[in-house]
Amino acid sequence: CLAVGWLVAPKVLLVLLGYLALNLAYTWVLKNEPVVDIFTIAIGFVLRVYAGAVALAVPVSGWMFVTTLCLALYLAAVKRRQELSQSGTGGRKVLARYSVVLVDRYAEMSATGALVFYSMFVMSTRPELVITVPLVLFGLFRYWYVVEALDGGESPTDALLADWPLLLTVLLWLAACGWALWPVGA
Predict the structure, then answer these.
(1) Which ranges constitute the DSSP H helices of 88-155?
(2) Which residues, 6+ apart, have CB-to-CB distance to 110 below 8 Å?
(3) For labelling, which of 118, 131, 153, 175 has a CA lying 20 to 30 Å from the CA of 83?
(4) Which of 15, 24, 78, 8 is nearest to 46 (CA)?
(5) Each residue's pLDDT tens digit in the chain (186 positions)?
(6) Cβ contacts of residue 118 below 8 Å, gap of 6+?
(7) What is the number of alpha carbons within 13 Å of residue 156 lying toward its C-beta?
């Protein structure tokens, strides 16, 4: 598969090899280092976005990278929070070196960063998407509600599919993006 991948899309394969190396480093070493573990997970998301962009031969803005990084840091911090609050420090070795209060701060900072960078991208590059900013803000608030009040969030996918207001927010965001970016006269 790797040889065929190299022949078909060598640049994508290089990104995937970097992603594989990161995952191996995480499995053997990085998962036991506080903060590094969360950043490793988030960088994996960024590499996936980059691999998709390389595969489609489209440029990815710095805004996309930093927004993706912040959003992935938010989700990873929330996951650690839920692991701590539901299982204590027994689930993962690194959890003994965190506290719920600390990962809450990480999550809040990351969510704020995601919102700020997304908003800056919208305002500076795609102002027609300004209608999506309140949806992003609501989505972050709602996800935190699902985590805090409904004890969800260890799996973002499960949280999304189990909470209709959150799912509706994502669908409205997609619709708003499609509407705002729809070519004029099409």
Answers:
(1) 100-124, 133-148
(2) 70, 71, 73, 74, 77
(3) 118
(4) 15
(5) 666 666 767 788 888 889 999 999 999 999 999 999 999 999 999 999 999 898 888 888 899 999 999 999 999 999 999 999 988 887 789 999 999 999 999 999 999 999 999 999 999 999 999 999 999 999 999 999 999 999 887 788 899 999 999 999 999 999 999 999 998 765
(6) 63, 67, 133, 136
(7) 15
